[in-house]
Design brief:
With 158 residues, the protein is mainly α. It has one domain (3-141): dinb family like domain (Four Helix Bundle (Hemerythrin (Met), subunit A), Up-down Bundle), CATH 1.20.120. It has helices at residues 3-23, 41-61, 76-96, 99-104, 117-141; strands at residues 106-108, 114-116. Strands 1-2 form a two-stranded antiparallel sheet. Helix 1 runs antiparallel to helix 2 (41-61) and helix 2 (41-61) packs parallel to helix 3 (76-96). The longest helix has 25 residues, at 117-141. 28% of the residues are buried.
């Protein structure tokens, strides 16, 4: 299995886990923060909805397609729709990128980060996994149920 094939396999396996984390966010708790310096739960969930579009931009254009203004207040239904569309597009984009471009294509976030496409794509996936965990910890703190991501939680056990 190539690095690209493994990446595609993993995002297909992780997609439902991201979706369930976004879906667990109560509509009336989007502004919840665990600390004054922390981000709002809705902002984190909105990032999880958009992260896939950013990775598609890396693969197609050598730069993340990411607009932080798209992480503003929105309904959970809007976030889930963006997630579904972005994840479907990303899976097509990963399948379509050549092994040569995946392995050797250059990607850049200006002077902040210059790397190969595959390495930046993996970095964005790991960032999304981090933020999914962050959102999961917010859920319990706001009184919501933590969904099963990698196995049962205290909230999913009977």
């Amino acid at each position: 299995m190539t690095n690209k094939e493994f990446f595609l396999k993993l995002i297909k396996e992780e997609a439902p886990k991201f979706r369930v984390a976004i879906d667990a966010l109560p509509e009336d708790k989007h502004t919840h923060k665990v600390h004054d310096k922390s981000r709002e739960a809705g902002n984190i969930a909105a990032q999880l909805a958009l992260q896939w579009k950013a990775i598609s931009g890396i693969l197609k254009n050598g730069a993340p397609d990411f607009n932080p203004h798209e992480m503003g207040p929105q309904s959970k239904a809007d976030m889930l729709a963006k997630f579904d569309a972005g994840m479907a597009e990303l899976q097509k984009d990963v399948a379509a990128v050549s092994e040569e471009d995946w392995d050797n294509g250059d990607a850049s976030m200006g002077e902040m980060w210059k790397d190969k496409k595959y390495n930046m794509a993996w970095g964005f996936l790991f960032d999304a996994i981090h933020h999914r965990g962050q959102l999961a910890t917010y859920l319990r703190a706001m009184g919501a149920k933590v969904p099963s991501i990698y196995g049962p939680t205290a909230d999913t056990e009977s």
